[in-house]
Amino acid sequence: MLNWNSVADTILCLRSLDKLDYTDASILVVDNNSTDNSVPELEMFKKNNPALDLEIIKNNENSGFAGGNNIGIDIALERGADYVLLLNNDTEVSPDFITPLLSEAEKNDKAGIITPSIFFYDERDLLWFGGKTKIEWLRMEKAISNSLFKKKIYGDLISAKVNFLTGACMFIKRKVLEEVGGFDERFFLYFEDADLSLRMQKKGWSLFWTPYSKIWHKVSATTLPSLGSPGMHYYHHRNIMLLAEKHGPLWVKFYMHIWAFLKVSKQLFKILLGRDKEISSAIIKGISDYYKRKFGKAYL
Fold first, then answer.
1. Domain's final residue, options 166, 195, 217
2. CA dihedral in degrees (238, 242, 245, 249; nearest 10)?
3. Is residue 273 part of a domain?
4. Confidence check: pLDDT of 133 > 90
5. With a threshold of 0.85, does the pTM exceed it?
6. Closest Cα partner for 56 from 26, 17, 25, 79?
């Protein structure tokens, strides 16, 4: 689990993990160089909950989602973990959510990553994510949408094979990580999970969604479609081009340059009109930095 200036969410997530009916698990929280009081509060939580097998790892820099999670992955593998569970700190888990993930992993030799049903935190029967079967390259920065977004689960369902899983919760086999590696840290933030999903499939592994494992994610059903801050726009636009370069079919590798030209032209026009200058500038910088091969953490 990764923490960055959000200790309240992390502690609530840890409280839900403390109720797991699966006991053979160790919890690593990597603090990504928080600037608030996260580390002392996490250490106090650990002291007050001695029965929880919890370790706090202090990173001396903000390595992003990709780099921060890679630190935890490396430590888990060094200590002999058979599986690594990546979990966002702004989630709450069902006490029995690990069992269906483990069951799917053990019955299917080629299942590399398994994800649970991820519901909205405030609308607890409404799906936020349950896997994605197709990348819509024409949409570029919005290429990976969720076919189960805002859907409800009815009746008896079985695990389904998908082509993309979100980094909000990934249950990954040790063998897969040893063969494929962790996240590509050039992404820093956004699309690193898509890249990992695609790299694993190129090596012959499959991705699965299992509906009976459940967690709840603190995202808004009304505000989610917006990319939000300039930083988010920067990383989305830079990183989708890196993803397309690495994994897109030949036509996408040509199309993305046309898309980039049109996108930059539109943002320049918006700046001239005095509209959304900060966001437009971030989009232009993101695309420019892709061509300059400036990856990793950006300083906006």
1. 217
2. -80
3. yes
4. no
5. yes
6. 26
- Clarify whether residues 93 and 185 are in a common domain: yes
Q: Are residues 44 and 91 in the same domain?
A: yes
More confident residue, 192 or 221: 192
pLDDT band at 155 (very low <50, low <70, confident <90, very high): low
Distance between CA atoms of 281 and 268, rounded to whole angstroms? Answer: 8
- Domain-terminating residue out of 217, 248, 272: 217
Residue 147 sits in a domain of what CATH number? 3.90.550.60
pLDDT digits (tens, 9 = 90+) for 263-290: 999 999 999 999 989 999 999 999 999 9
CB 7 within 8 A of CB 36: yes
If you count them, how many residues does the chain have?
300
Q: Mean pLDDT of all residues in the chain?
A: 91
Pairing of the two strands 206-217 and 169-173: unpaired
In a domain, 299, yes or no: no
User: What is the rounded distance in angstroms from the CA atom of residue 202 to the CA atom of residue 39?
Assistant: 39
The residues pairing with 170 across neighbouring beta strands, listed in sequence order, are: 86
Q: Are residues 100 and 158 in the same domain?
A: yes
300 domain-assigned: no
Better-predicted residue by pLDDT, 158 or 55? 55
162 shares its domain with 258 = no
- Distances in Å between the Cα of 169 and the Cα atoms of 1, 17, 60, 87, 222 are 10, 13, 24, 5, 21
**What pLDDT sits at residue 225?**
44
Whole-number Å distance between alpha carbons of 27 and 85: 9
- C-alpha distances in angstroms, 263 versus 200, 283, 287? 31, 8, 9
What is the total count of domains within the chain?
2
> Could you tell me the residue range of the domain that residue 44 belongs to?
2-217
Q: Would you say residue 224 has pLDDT above 60? A: no
Structure tokens at 77: 């593998």
Residue 125: per-residue pLDDT: 86
100 and 145 within one domain: yes
- Compute the distance between CA of residue 94 and CA of residue 229 in angstroms, rounded to an integer: 31
